Amino acid sequence: MIEISHVSKQFGDFKAVDDANFGIRQGEFFSMLGPSGCGKTTTLRMIAGFEQPTSGEVRLDGRDVSKVPPYKRNVNTVFQNYALFPHMTVFDNIAFGPRSTKAPKDEIAGRVKEMLEIVHLADFAERRPTQLSGGQQQRVALARALVNYPSALLLDEPLGALDLKLRQTMQLELKRIQREVGITFVFVTHDQEEALTMSDRIAVMNAGHVEQIGTPEEIYHQPATV
After folding, report:
1. N or C: fewer beta carbons within 10 Å in the chain?
2. Res 207 pLDDT > 60
């Protein structure tokens, strides 16, 4: 459970997020939808720990983590640029997290294999990122983020760099993976169709405010703003 409790974020005179107040349920695919500059990415970064709220609290599983650094939070983030290590194989990219926690070698191998199967890349373990398509790189980034079994995965416009056909394929893939692993996905997008296709619930944001939270059906049929 992620709770955003009366959270505001100020950059100088600019209020990026203004009194956001909502909860994200365990195991939910939750999207934050809105135009560029609406506060959705800033909110995601506060959940991740890359930004601290000016006021209010971010709670993960009931604990206020507003001042807890990112590496001490049980969440992982996937960015639009994937941030894969080009000199490492796919296997080593995914194994990077468990290795840094000094997990046993056989446990690491098992976890990487499990993730490669979940993202349908079992035959690509020894390839390097430069030998993969954009969609395949995206799936490696997902596997790497999931291999440490976080309680939530945060996704910042992860499909933005893909062409339309691949983006639509990856929307279905993301939803399948989320159902399979059963953890909370928090997804940031400016694309209404994307949010409506994948989400259990959506927070519509504009100018730092959360204007509406609801299911895709509610957002589509009863929008709070036109």
Report:
1. C
2. yes
